[in-house]
Amino acid sequence: MPDSLNDKITLVTGAGSGIGRATSLVLAREGATIAVSDIDADGGEETLSAIKDMGGDGMFVHADVSRPADVEAMVGAVIQAYGRLDCAYNNAGIEGYWGGRLHEYPEDTFDRLIDINVKGVWLCLKYEIPEMLKQGGGAIVNTASAAGLVGSRRLSVYSASKHAVVGLTKSAALEYAADNIRVNAVCPGIIDTPMMDRLVEGRDDYAAAIPTRQPIGRKGTPNEIAEAVAWLCSDAASLVTGLAMAVDGAFTAQ
Ligand code: NAP
Asked: What CATH number should be reported for the domain whose range is 9-245?
């Protein structure tokens, strides 16, 4: 897909680490200008430096996606800098891991997880879509998860949050299809990122089971998600909207 995103102004949240960073670099390789956003300023600035090192262009915008004022200001900063928003990758999320079962899950962790993973994606859509309506179209990708397609023991609330992202994605696709705004979700399986390192820390049994949990026999790489997101953002996917695309080494095919 050489230059499949030439001159597209693209916003990426959670761009300071893992899947968001890898995707920012792949989108930049495809010619997009990247508004790198993250709650972690150091990580975000590192991603922006890497984009510039490869000859790309962009800016860093600090934002906590669970805060409405931050999200409104984040989208506003992109419009002020570039005058439009062609693509958005709403990727920021947390694992909120709790070792126990659903009935033991702490209420404050539940609230924080839902605030970031669900409200955060909704807030991004809420402020991105009006800009895309004004300019006559756009492409949005949300990060859900394989855990947004099937249940997940010990990750019940995370799984619920990602099912909600799939619901937001499909509903938004329906509501804005006639406005030339495509909305899709990518559903990663087990991907080698700092989040996955935190999930397996101290859980040797879980780490050892990864090859069997993911039939392809290995973890995925952030780049393997990035390539799917780049395609979904590109005009090559012009008929694709409302899709929750599993990129999971057959995890959800079982
Ligand atoms: P990651 O390496 O932890 O990266 C997530 C980034 O998002 C971090 O820079 C993090 O900053 C930032 N972030 C956290 N809360 C935020 C907030 N409120 N506002 C803005 N940014 C925030 O994780 P990842 O594995 O790349 O995950 C990216 C997305 O993929 C998440 O939505 C995750 O649920 C999803 N996912 C991951 C996997 C996997 O196996 N890795 C599988 C399925 C889905 P801090 O580091 O400061 O918190």
From this structure: 3.40.50.720
